Structure formats: C-alpha cells, structure tokens
Amino acid sequence: MDNSFAGSSHPARYKWRKVAYGGMQPGFDDNHTDDSFLEGMVMNANVVKRNLLKVMLDTVSISQYLCIVTLVVLIWTYTLKSAINVSSLLLLDISLLVLGFLVLILTADMLSLSLLFHYFLNISFFTTGLFLLSPIYHTLTCSISPDSIWALTGSLLILHLFLHDYSGSTVKPPGALKNPNSLNASIVASVLIASRLPSRLHVFAIVLFSLQIFLFAPRVTYCIKKFSFHLHLCFSFVLIAVTLGFTYHLHGLLFVLLLGLLVSVNVLCPYWLIRLQEYKFEINGPWDEAKLCFDVTE
Amino acid sequence: MSDSRKHRILMVSDFFYPNFGGVENHIYYLSQCLLKLGHKVVVMTHAYGKRSGVRYMTGGLKVYYVPLRPFFMQNIFPTFYGTLPIVRTILIRENISLVHGHQAFSTLCHEALMHARTMGYKVVFTDHSLYGFADVGSIHMNKVLQFTLADVTQAICVSHTSKENTVLRAGLPPEKVYVIPNAVDTAMFKPAPERLSREEIIIVVISRLVYRKGADLLVEVIPEVCQMHSNVRFIIGGDGPKRVRLEEMREKHSLQDRVEMLGAVPHAHVRSVLISGHIFLNSSLTEAFCIAILEAASCGLLTVSTRVGGVPEVLPDDMIVLAEPDPGDMVRAIGTAISILPRIDPQTMHLRMKKLYSWHDVAKRTEIVYDHALSCCNQSLTDRLSRYLSCGAWAGKLFCLVMIIDFLLWHLLQMWQPAEEIEEVPELVFHNREESWNVNEDHGLI
User: Fold this and answer.
1) Where residue B345 sits, what CATH number does that domain have?
2) Range of the domain at B287
3) B177: which strand partners?
C-alpha cells in the first residue's frame, strides 16, 4: 500500500491520528497505544451517592405496605375464626371508605365537585357489583379442601408482595400498573378466602374490605406521602405498632417473624446496599449505544 | 513481500457466505487477499441449510461447512467439547499453523479458539462489534470474551473506539490489540458513469430497519427535511420490524411521491441503488465501523451520519458530515450536506477512496499480526492456567476446569484417533490466482 499522504513532508515526526483511513500510519505500529487512549471514558457518571438515613426513611414505605397486608390477613383470620361478626365488618368497611375519602379530599390540590361525584359514582358501582356477585363467590370453592385454599392463598399473597411496585415516588400517582400480576394475585387471594365464609353477607363484607385495601391503599398512601413526609412517617409508625400489637396477641411466632422482617427491611438492607455501592463500576464512553431523546410511540 | 513465511490460516466464524454482512464480507475479502499473497487459507463455518460439507470458492478458498445446526441468531448450540473432534481433524488435515476467529457473538469461534489453544496452536481474534457493559446479555458476553481473550495470542479490532471497548471488556493489555480497519471493494462500487443532475437531490438510506440502526430517527427526520427542502427525495432500501413505522410516516405526511421504499435490497443490487443518489444517510445508534459508509463514498456519494462509535474515524472530514443522534441536529447536517454538494465530484471521491482503503493493505497488515503471533513462544498448560485464574474469583476457577477437561479430552482423542492416521491435504496450486481479480468486473461470490 503506497503511503501517499497529502501534506506530509517529514514522515519521521508524523503525528498519530485517531483515524482508520489511509492505511498504516507511518512511524507507528498498528498496536500503538496513544496517550489519548481511553480519554473518552467516564466512570460512575450516573451513580447516586446514597445516605444511610435517607435510605432507611425510604424503606419505611415498604414496611408500611407489609403491615397493611399483615392487617388484612389478621382480619381474615379473625373472620374465619368467627371472632368478628358481620355488622362490625360492614362498619369497618364503611369507616375505611369514609376515611380514605377524607384523606383524598384533605390532601388534594384542587377540590372539584365533579371529581368528588366521579369518585362517589365509581365507589357505588363497585360496591353494588360486589354485592350482586357475592352469592357466586360464596359457593366458589365448596368442593376444594381447606388445605389447598390456605396454601394457594399463602402463595398468592407472597407473589403479590414480591411483585408489588414499592417505588413510592411522589412524582406520579400510581395509575396504570406496570405489572398487573401483583394486583391479580391479591384479588384472587381475597376471593378464595371469602369463599370459605358462612354467609353471603360475610362474603360481601370481606371481599369489599380486601378489595378496598388492595385497590385503593396505594393511592391513599401516595396522597399522604405527597402531602407531608412527617405525616407519612407518623402514619407508618402507628400502623407498624398496631400491627405488631395485634400479631403479638394472635401468635407469638408470627410476631417474631414479622418483627424480624421489619428490622431486616428497615435496617439491615439499607446498610447492605450502602456497603455494596462501593463496588459499583459504571463505564460510559464513545462506544455506548446512543440514547434517543424522544419517546418511541409504537 | 514475505516469501519466507507462508502461513496456513484457518478462519473460523459462524458468519460466512451465503449470508451477507460485515463480518462475512470481511472474512471473504481478507481470505482472498491473503491467498493472493501466497498464504493458504481455509474457512470453517456451520452448514447453511443444504449447503454442508466442503466447498471451494473463488481463488481456491476451501470452506468447511461443518454440519452443525444454527441454534440462536445464526450461532450453533454451545456444546463446549462437541466441536473438538472436527476442529482437531481440520487442523491436522490442513496442516494449519494459525487460527483466526471472527466476531465475539459467535459460539463456533469461541469453541474453535479454545480447542486450538488447547492443542497448542497460535490464535488471533478479530472483534467486529461494540458492546455495552450494563445489560444482562452484555455482561455474560463480556465474561465469555474474557475467557477466550485471556489466552489469545493477538487481537485485532476494526477501529480505535472498538479497541478501547474491547480492552475494557476483556481486560486485555492494549499492546496486544492491533487496529486494522475493514476496507471496501472499490472495483465493485464505482460511481455512475455520468453525473446525476442536481435539480432533485436524492438521499439514499440502505440499512436494516431495526432500532439499533436508528430507524426511529429516520421517522423523525424525513418529514422535516421534506418540508424544509422541496427538491429532496428519499430512497429507502432494506427491511425490518420498523418498516411499518416508516410506512405510517409516509402516509401521515403524504410523502408517497417523495419517499420510495424498496424493501430488502440484495447485495448485488446495492451499487445500483447507491449510484441513483447524491447523499447517503446513516442513522445508526451504534457502529464499530460502518462499511455501508465506505461503499457509499466509493460510489461518490456524500455521507451524512450520526456521530457514534467508530464512525468519526472512518472517513476524512470533507467526505462526511457528522451529526449527534438527535433529529434536529441531523436535519441541520443534511442541510449542510445539500449546500456543499456542488463541490463534490464522485469520480474524485472514488479515486481517493481507492487510496484510503484497500483490502490488500488490510491483508498485509494482518500478515504482520500473524508474523508476530507465530513468533510468540509456546506455553505449557500450567502457564496458561494462571492466566485464566486471573479472570475472576469464581469464573477463573471455572475456566481452568473447562480447559483442563478440554486438555484431557484432547489426549483421549489423540489415543483414539492418532494424528498419523489423518491424511494431510497436499498443497494445491490454483492457476487462476495469477490474474488480477481487481480488474475482473463481474467477480462475485459464487
């Protein structure tokens, strides 16, 4: 290959250029490593420096949700043992609805009558639908043995907890679910438990209670968190205390397990995360695939 | 000319003719030029449909289409030791002195290089693509690459950016990596005999219409350019999942008479599509080395491309207009290209390309790499194992185990089928090697 370079009169001191054309650069081997090698590399550009206290405060929302689910399971257990009667359940449902509504109204930025009416209409449709469907749920699992039901419910709840979206961000309200399987699992678990109950009114009350919690709790907790972080913390601690209290009365082992889980989620995991961050090594450079700055709408 | 050292090279990859692509063309053209330099080249790849067994191609290039079924994206199923017998037989039968593997995403290449190292042959590896570090697929691919390159004799990358990327991914010392770019067959890609009239400016796009090649950018850029410049037309060749989006864009902005979609363009017709245009537009989001740009420049087109990967190194600044992968910047770049178009002479560009890129030059530089590789000293198993151990806490030990088992299987095979029983192929001389194939107008891959 003839080295016909334009404008190079002294090939002895030819400057190395980062180009691929023109054949071998005179005076340099092909494996020559210039000083500018890897000068475009950027390390750990997007790594967020985390603070232990902030991470621990953020994990409070995870514990809060765990306690909510535990309370639901407690109510189920008490109802199945017939420790709660129908009327108190219905009272619980109505009070939860009213409380949820209040929270939404009090923490909303804009109070509009049409929005309120819209919510109220949706709730009434929802409740009516459930009431009409409760006879079907009542006889749904007649022929299935109770062991299968408990096993299935347990696994579905664990699946629900596993797949739930814990991001707890106050930027966007929890609208469309990224993974609807978590909600599906919780709804199926509620229906299975409800089908074990003695009367249709029981079924209606329990299904209404469970669905209220699973469908609306994320929205309500989001509103509380957005309104005031301190309120969110107080609410979470009260909830955790109440849950621990009830679990202690129910079963000692369950209490220990729950306490252990909460401690590991709130204390151990943040510490572990901070320790692992030291090993983070993110490499960026001119070889990266370009990111499109606009959204691709299919 | 190195008459003293004639090498016998085995090229290994999953990607070869009848597939068309960057890696396939690279292997073919490099092999042809090495044959012209007097070396012996044999290619090993997997069977393509009914094309299985031994075939001879132009210039006496012997290709082994090993009967292994492709499993995932043209790669064979990774069986670690399943390819050991056939690789050993080919290496002994052809009396190979050096094994050259291509493309990191090729299981056959990794397996063949592993077996070649076990049997004590020198290996050279060429990496043709850029990979990231963050997603699951890349992390595993990089670990596999680290395994192969822990013990490679020399490595070749197709651009300086690719060298940086490979060195980071595999943890190689930079002195072991040579940068030898691809080239273009300037005899095939000649500009149109007469210059096109510049009343209507025609912009050509030929690429697979996938996300990676920036088809989404095209969807944003084309309507704006058509609106800003009323005399511009687009010709889009190629097919892929994003074709639907482009058709929709055409319908939405009523650009049916200004945007022509050709569908998949066979390799033999690429030149005729290119010479019908003035400007070549490349919107890839990542590219180690873009051969399409070379083909366009060889046909005398001015190139507009995204500034990604190794693209800025490929052409001199007066033959290419670079833009950030952002629709606004690309529209601006196309405007600049249209304004400098009168100064471009396709024939001058073609003659410059002949001097800037040549497969013979690539072959000569590769020959230097082979000479260096063969002059490296032999290493025993224990020396090599220490290199593998440094790959990682768990991975290092796993790799050592894999290599030890390979070593034992090799000795077993040596006892079962001794090397003396394998007949060696005699040296064959093909007389048509004498005529210069550059002059041959319609040489093709037949």
Assistant:
1) 3.40.50.2000
2) 201-356
3) B155
